[in-house]
Amino acid sequence: HAMADFLQRDAMLEASLILQDDLFTRWTLPTLNLFINGALREILLHKPNAFAVTANLPLTAGALQMMPPQYPILLRIIRNTNPPEQSALSADAISQITLVSRQMMDAVDPLWSDPNYSKPAALVRHFMFDAAQPDHFYVYPPNNGAGMVEAIVAAEPARIGAPASGQTLLESWSAVVPIKESYRQAVVDYMLFRAFSMDLAMPGMAQRAQMHRAAFAEALGIKYSRESMASPKTTYATPAVEGGAA
Question: What pTM, to 2 d.p., does this model score?
Answer without folding.
Answer: 0.77
